[in-house]
C-alpha cells in the first residue's frame, strides 16, 4: 500500500498547481493542524481525518490566493482501508459544488508509488483488470446435482476440497480488534449487509413481509452485541465464498473470484456463505436432500472442522446465516425461487437466531 508522506507531497505541489491553475507559481506550502485554536476547549477537534496543506500561489494576474491539499490517514472510524479513504475524497470532489457558498473542489487524485500526484478529476467509473480462469463455476455442479438428485465421487471430493480451501484461507490469524468490530458492524449496517439487503426487498414479497424482516433485523442486532468483542477470532477471509465465486479450472482445481469486505473478518462468514447453498439448492429440488445435498452439507462441515478444530464457529454463525439467507430469498437476486423455499430458509434463520449456538442438524427440519 502506498502511504503518502507530506514532504513528498510538498515536492509535487508545483505540478499539481500547474494542472488546476495554469500559469500560477507556488510561493510557499505550510501544514494545517486538525485544530489550531489553543482556546478551543471542549469544542476543539482532537483528531483530524487527514493532513491538509495550505498552498500559497501567485496567479498569472499577479494576485495571491491559497489552495488546500487534503490527504487522508487510516483510523478505525471506517477509514482503515485505502478504498475507504479514496471513496471519501472522491465523494467530496463530487459533492462540494452542490452546496451553496461551499469551497470549490478543484482536483482529486492519487499519490503514485514514486510520490508523484496523478489527477483523477476527469475520471468516470472505475475498472479492474484480472486474470481469466478457464473452467466452470461450482454453481453448475450444484444445478446438476439438484437435477439428477444424486452425487458422484467427484462431487464429494470437490466439497472436501472447498472445505480445505476455506480452512486454508482462514489459517492466517490477524490482530486487529477494530477490524473485527468493523466486520461485525458491516455485517448489519453496510449497503451489502443485512440492513441494505432488507431495504432492497421489493414491496409484497411472498413469505417475506416487512414485519418478518423487521424481526430478523432485531435478532441480528442483538447478535452484533454478542460478537463485536470476539476480536480474537479475526482471520483472513474471502468475504463472498459462494458457488458463483468458485471456479474449477481445467485441472479440476478450485480457483476463487472476487474476494470482498477487505479479506478480513469472521470465518463463519465464508463457512455459512457456501454451506447455505446446499440447503437452497435442495429446497428448490425436492428429493435431492436425502440422496445428495445432505451428504455435501455434512461433508463440508466435518472436513472444515477436521482441519481447523474451530467448533467455536457454531457459537457465532447465526447472523451470518441470516445475511446469506436474505440474499437467497430476495427476488432481486433470485426472482424465480419458490415461495416455499423462501419461507423455509427464513424459518431456518429464525430458529438459528433464537438458539444460543448453531447445530448443523437443524437443517434436517427443513426436509422432514
TrEMBL record:
Q: Which Pfam families match?
A: APH (PF01636)
Q: Which UniProt keywords apply?
A: Transferase
Family matches, as SUPFAM superfamilies: Protein kinase-like (PK-like)
Q: Which GO terms describe its molecular function?
A: transferase activity
Transferase found in the keyword field: yes
Indicate whether Transmembrane appears among the record's keywords. Answer: no
Q: What top-level class of enzyme does the UniProt entry assign?
A: transferase
**Sequence ranges assigned to domain Aminoglycoside phosphotransferase in this UniProt record:** 90-293
User: What's its EC?
Assistant: 2.7.1.-
The protein in question is named: Aminoglycoside phosphotransferase family protein
Amino acid at each position: 500500500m502506498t502511504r503518502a508522506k507530506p514532504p513528498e507531497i510538498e515536492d509535487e505541489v508545483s505540478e499539481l498547481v500547474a494542472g488546476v491553475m495554469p500559469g500560477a507559481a507556488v510561493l510557499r506550502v505550510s501544514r494545517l493542524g486538525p485544530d489550531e485554536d489553543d482556546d478551543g476547549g471542549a469544542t476543539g477537534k482532537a483528531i483530524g481525518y487527514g493532513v491538509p496543506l495550505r498552498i500559497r500561489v501567485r496567479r498569472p494576474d499577479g494576485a495571491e490566493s491559497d489552495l488546500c491539499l487534503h490527504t487522508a490517514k487510516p483510523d478505525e472510524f471506517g477509514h482503515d482501508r485505502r478504498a475507504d479513504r479514496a471513496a471519501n475524497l472522491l465523494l467530496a470532489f463530487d459533492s462540494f459544488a452542490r452546496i451553496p457558498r461551499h469551497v470549490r473542489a478543484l482536483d482529486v487524485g492519487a499519490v503514485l508509488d514514486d510520490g508523484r500526484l496523478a489527477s483523477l478529476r476527469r475520471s468516470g467509473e472505475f475498472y479492474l483488470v484480472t486474470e481469466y480462469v478457464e473452467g466452470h463455476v461450482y454453481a453448475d455442479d450444484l444445478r446438476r446435482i439438484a437435477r439428477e438428485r444424486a452425487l458422484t465421487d467427484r462431487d464429494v471430493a470437490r466439497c472436501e476440497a472447498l472445505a480445505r480451501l476455506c480452512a486454508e484461507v482462514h489459517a492466517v490469524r490477524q490482530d486487529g480488534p477494530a477490524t473485527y468490530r468493523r466486520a461485525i458492524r458491516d455485517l448489519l449496517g453496510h449497503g451489502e449487509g443485512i440492513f441494505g439487503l432488507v431495504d432492497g426487498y421489493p414491496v409484497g414479497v411472498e413469505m417475506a413481509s416487512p414485519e418478518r424482516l423487521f424481526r430478523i433485523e432485531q435478532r441480528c442486532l442483538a447478535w452484533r452485541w454478542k460478537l463485536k468483542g470476539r476480536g480474537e477470532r479475526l482471520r483472513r477471509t474471502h468475504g463472498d465464498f459462494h458457488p458463483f465465486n468458485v471456479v474449477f479450472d481445467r485441472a479440476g482445481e478450485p480457483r476463487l473470484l472476487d474476494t470482498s469486505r477487505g479479506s478480513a473478518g469472521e470465518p463463519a462468514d465464508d463457512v455459512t456463505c457456501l454451506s447455505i447453498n446446499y440447503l437452497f439448492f435442495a429446497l428448490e429440488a425436492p428429493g435431492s436432500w436425502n440422496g445428495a445435498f445432505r451428504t455435501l452439507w455434512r461433508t463440508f462441515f466435518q472436513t472444515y472442522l477436521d482441519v481447523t478444530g474451530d467448533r467455536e464457529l457454531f457459537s457465532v454463525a447465526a447472523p451470518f446465516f441470516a445475511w446469506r439467507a436474505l440474499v437467497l430469498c430476495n427476488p432481486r437476486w433470485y426472482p424465480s425461487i419458490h415461495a416455499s423455499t423462501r419461507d423455509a430458509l427464513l424459518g431456518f434463520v429464525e430458529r438459528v437466531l433464537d438458539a444460543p449456538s448453531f447445530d448443523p442438524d437443524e437443517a434436517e427440519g427443513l426436509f422432514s
